[in-house]
């Protein structure tokens, strides 16, 4: 027997809530023009009156940290991270863990 009710498959990352997909099934096929990128954290911090810093290289990290700590106000540091190094860092931190 074929069911009269069809289950709508809405992926969990969809921006359409399940109740809307049931009301308008065709809505899940429309593309949107919204693009989500990382914000410019330096400008974002400065828009709230904080100081914003961007680290361009590993050699500039310490001077930027020093300047941010001594600026006398709230500071936000935008520091890019190489996620390829996560496993090596995890292994190094695991070796430092207390065995208790």
Question: Can you characterise this structure?
Answer:
With about 100 residues, the protein is mainly alpha-helical. The chain has a domain at about 40-85. Helices cover about 35% and strands about 10% of the residues. It is built from 4 helices and 2 strands. It has helices at about 20-25, 40-45, 60-70, 85-95, and strands at about 50-55, 75-80. It has a two-stranded parallel sheet. Helix 3 links the parallel strand 1 (about 50-55) and strand 2 (about 75-80). The chain is flat and about 55 Å long. The protein starts with 17 loop residues before the first helix and ends with a helix.
What's the helix and strand layout?
Blueprint (H helix, E strand, L loop, with lengths): L17 H6 L17 H7 L3 E4 L6 H9 L5 E4 L7 H11 L4
Parallel strand pairs: 1-2
Q: What does the average pLDDT come to?
A: 77
SSE pattern, N- to C-terminal: HHEHEH
**Structural class label:** mainly alpha
Task: Give a count of the beta strands, DSSP E runs of length 2 or more.
Answer: 2
Total helical elements: 4
Give the end-to-end Cα distance, rounded to a whole number of Å. Answer: 61 Å
Shape: flat
Helix content: 25-40%
Work out the strand percent.
Answer: 5-15%
Question: Strands of the biggest beta sheet: in what spatial order?
Answer: 1-2
Question: How can the largest sheet be summarized?
Answer: 2 strands, parallel
Gyration radius over CA: 24 Å
Give the low-confidence spans. none
